[in-house]
Amino acid sequence: MRLLFNYLIMKSTEIIKKIEKTAIKFFSKYTNLNENQTGYGLTIDSTNNLDVATIAGSGFMLSSLIIADKRGYLERDEAIKIARNTLKNFYDNISHYEGFFIHFANFKTGQRYKLCEYSTVDTMIFLCGAIAVDSYFQDEVINKYFKKLINRINFPKFVHIKDGKPTFYMAYNPDRQGQYVRGEPGFIHHWSMFAEQLPLYVIYAGLGYENALDVYHSFKRVKGSYKDIEYIYTPGNALFVYQYPLTFLDLEKICDDEGINWHDNAKKAILAHQRLAVDISDIYSSFNKYAFGFTAGMTKTGYQVFRGLPNIENKYATDGTVHPNAIVGSLSIANEITVPGVEYLYNKPNLFQEYGFVSGYNEDQDWVASCYLSIDKGLEMLMANAYLSNDVRRAFMNHEIIKKGLKALKWE
Questions:
Q1: Average pLDDT over all residues of the chain
Q2: Predicted structure pTM score
């Protein structure tokens, strides 16, 4: 029995290594590394449209350089060169407002895509990747441009008083017809609820802003439960919200000043999502204890964001599509259910291809995605790495800004 158990562990580890490796291959293939173009360092949003890049994708790409160096997939000098050139090009050429970058960009030129917003959360993911490579490579040029980028950001400009509390805006858009603008253009929405923005507070605190703890406490912590699983949930309850912060923040043994452990909270959310998937598996045949999670991704009819329970509307939302990033993105958080899930997905026909798992599948609709999303690949790669060796999170957590931020927020 012990030999069988060890064999199964080895088998799952090899699969997770493939997830990590194929994701790195994706970022190498779909990142602009043309030094003659002002889109250098940009990573595509989706393989369905090779003209559009996402700023968050570049943050994940920077993280991939750490793993590529550790695994020997890239020469160290080449990895450092890519990181240097990316940070320099983002400083020189990628459109920003008060230091916060556009959400989407033209892959070749780096120009703003249509009238997209200037996004705090996408900038945050880029900064997380930049912090990780600055910590890991200890390179003077990387450090120089990292400091130029982060010191350019006017964080206080994006903090306003809402309900008597200093609260981050989500985004900015100067155009009346711009993305997410309703009414007058300008600042858009508020981070007044728990969501994927957690690293933003740590970075803000680490830069020394005196109101950082108040800003962190400005968003609502709303508890709810599915069956007997109680946790702090986000209004829409898409699973990626709990996972993204933990791609960089290693919080398994860290609680905030109110005793909240965000790692444990994410685990409860994952378990609740699995329970719901099992409970409705008689309606949607793709769901079972191995294939679960209500998240964002491609479906047969396009990109959709699904909802688990509880949520603000008190009803789940799905068309029965399973997104592999929901399961892979739960690695290092809920391994007891995730590792068997990863094996299950890997053994299903046509799901694992050249760049790892495709975006989704739906057995009731006889549909398998033919595309990859860079944010899916980033989530899968970093959680696979966290499970295998934790290289990226270790580098991120060792950065002076992050150590100062954790201390200022009283996370210990």
A1: 97
A2: 0.96
